[in-house]
DNA sequence: CCACCGCCGTGAAACGATTCATGCGCGGCT
DNA sequence: AGCCGCGCATGAATCGTTTCACGGCGGTGG
């Protein structure tokens, strides 16, 4: 593989000069520069980032480690992060832990060994050992979609308690008194918080709440939940799902069973992914500003890895969710 | 940052010994090994992959560069690739070019500078300059979801002509004679091939074909297409969409306009992403084995980057698509 | 004519790991 | 006793860059 030495020889200059041409073109004379550039071109020289990085001590790559790339919510976060990274001349690589702590650990140690600039992290388990060992690597990280105490790390999240409350209030206000909450696994803070929000509203109302917990936050689990809902008596007239994938699964299950939505069952989802609005019965959903989440997280990370010597202060950014009402809860009378 | 030297000093051994403990534990005596390991533990030493890689000349990372992570089809490819990479002790990083040639170039040069083990590539434009410069870096690459001549590179794809034909034949067989094909941008080989498949069937039938081209392969474009379809006269009784995102958009537009699916309009999608089966009117779709695509591509790449000296031969793997019939084309009479 | 300065280019010293030839001590064999 | 071989640790060379102190050279001002 052709290196800077080969270019130097070909152009008849020293390697220092080649490096200057590549990194600080203005310090080298026009004629030399032209000679070096054409040598680079002829030889097809590609700079070796590992050597560069070894010297520099830091990489130009920022990582995003998400829970589930199959959930478009996280893809939107990735897009947001990429946008701001691009502005800073950084690259983002995306890793998918697929809700498996084991893969999370594996990726984290890979990223630490790579000495990435920083990691945007939506972890399976905050308190876990995964993070404990990663923390020792001194690589800065920012939590995304998960709030943590500011003394531990910066974080960017959306207020899930409020989000849960928004959904619950909407259902109460549209007259439902028999309400189900289809929740994901309780290990996820997001799920616990959304449930807390729901309870805070429903406990103060006349409505009755049933909570169904699923093992995954995906469409298949939603279908399972639909089956369970169909077997309940009295059957709920409204259901709130901890995310849109679950909601879409429930919707499908209901339509398949001939239950009319929203007339016989109102459905509210969470995240407001594109597919929610695009469902045949467009879903009412609690919107999270995913893109802004990604942008903000990347900005915080960049701030933390800035040139300045002083330790930057940790920040906790919390966005507010927003209820988007669509046909799946629209009164038809 | 703590390096191998610090560990060596702490354990009272040479750096060579530390390296041996990490890489070939069996060659160092148990007592020394224990001493080194505890030094590593105490200091929180994390190996610097850039130094390691500089020496080794190759990285342990394989990249996947896809057209659009927002399309679950590509997420499934990523999953497949990750599976086989994991077995080989490699890591996969995923990059999203978002259909932008510019970002594709930017990622490719980043990956070349990283001396990535190889790249799985679903390029915006095969013939483009992006690849031309990348090719000079001598990093092996395999095309995914795009067939190329075997002398250029290995590729793993699905037969799109057959896929288009499958969908068209299904519509003809279910009695439709006024058929629309909602296609994506013709720059994409996939789109051209699917259209060719459709034509091959419909030209030999009594059915009439209208082709609508959209600018993007996403849900919003599908909605736009729905509006256009509604304005046509005679209005088609069946529509085949170049992918499921378009189909979901069309479906939504139709339901919103009060058009009954499949009674007034049958819809066929392509890819068979999870959301297709989960739509309120589950979509008939042409299934592509996305996961196997990813697995196969990763395997080919690994074979090409094997230890053996001899140049491995290029391979062209073509999978067969499969029609999955669901409610969106089911005869209701 | 000398001293100085600015412009360019040079060469060598890092960076942090891996690898390999070498050395050392010790037990066993002749 | 002498020699060999084995097990284990060492230290130096190496990978491809960046960076920086230095120096040559031509021009300018005194």
Can you offer a commentary on this structure?
Two copies of one chain form a homodimer. Chain A folds into three domains: about 5-45, Orthogonal Bundle (434 Repressor (Amino-terminal Domain)), CATH 1.10.260; about 60-160 and about 290-320, 3-Layer(aba) Sandwich (Rossmann fold), CATH 3.40.50.2300; about 160-290 and about 325-330, Response regulator (Rossmann fold). By secondary structure, chain A is an alpha/beta fold. Chain A has 13 helices and twelve strands. The model of chain A has no long low-confidence stretch (mean pLDDT about 95). In chain A, α9 links the parallel β6 and β7 (about 210-215). Chain A is elongated, with a radius of gyration of 25 Å. In chain A, the strands form two sheets. In chain A, strands 2-1-3-4-5-11 form a six-stranded parallel sheet, with helices on both faces. The interface between A and B is large, with 57 and 57 residues. Chain B binds a DNA duplex (30 and 30 nucleotides) through α2 and α4. Chains A, B: This is LacI family DNA-binding transcriptional regulator. Chains A, B: Pfam families: LacI, Peripla_BP_3. Chains A, B: One of its GO terms (molecular function) is DNA-binding transcription factor activity.
């Amino acid at each position: 593989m052709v290196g800077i030495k080969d270019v130097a020889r070909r152009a008849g200059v020293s390697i220092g000069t080649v490096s200057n041409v590549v990194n600080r073109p203005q310090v080298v004379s026009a004629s030399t520069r032209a000679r070096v550039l054409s040598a680079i071109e002829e030889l097809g020289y590609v700079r070796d980032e590992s050597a560069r990085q070894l010297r520099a001590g830091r990489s130009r790559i920022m990582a995003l480690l998400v829970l589930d790339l199959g959930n478009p919510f996280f893809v939107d976060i990735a897009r947001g992060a990429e946008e701001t990274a691009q502005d800073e001349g950084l690259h983002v690589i995306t890793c998918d832990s697929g809700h498996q702590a084991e893969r999370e650990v594996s990726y984290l140690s890979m990223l630490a060994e790579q000495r990435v600039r920083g990691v945007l992290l939506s972890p399976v388990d905050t308190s876990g050992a995964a993070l404990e060992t990663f923390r020792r690597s001194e690589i800065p990280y920012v939590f995304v979609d998960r709030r943590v105490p500011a003394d531990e790390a910066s974080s960017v999240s959306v207020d899930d308690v409020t989000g849960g409350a928004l959904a619950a209030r909407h259902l109460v206000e549209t007259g439902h008194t028999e309400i189900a909450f289809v929740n994901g696994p309780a290990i996820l803070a997001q799920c616990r918080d959304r449930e807390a929000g729901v309870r805070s509203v429903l406990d103060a109302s006349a409505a009755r709440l049933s909570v169904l917990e699923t093992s995954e936050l995906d469409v298949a689990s939603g279908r399972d939940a639909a089956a369970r809902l169909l077997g309940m008596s009295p059957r709920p007239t409204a259901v709130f799902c901890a995310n849109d994938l679950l909601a879409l699964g429930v919707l499908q299950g209901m339509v398949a069973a001939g239950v009319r939505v929203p007339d016989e069952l109102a459905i509210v989802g969470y995240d407001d992914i594109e597919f929610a609005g695009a469902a045949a019965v467009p879903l009412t959903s609690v919107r999270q500003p995913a893109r802004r989440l990604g942008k903000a997280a990347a900005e915080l990370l960049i701030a933390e890895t800035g040139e300045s010597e002083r330790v930057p202060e940790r920040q906790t950014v919390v966005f507010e969710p927003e209820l988007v009402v669509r046909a799946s809860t629209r009164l038809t009378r």
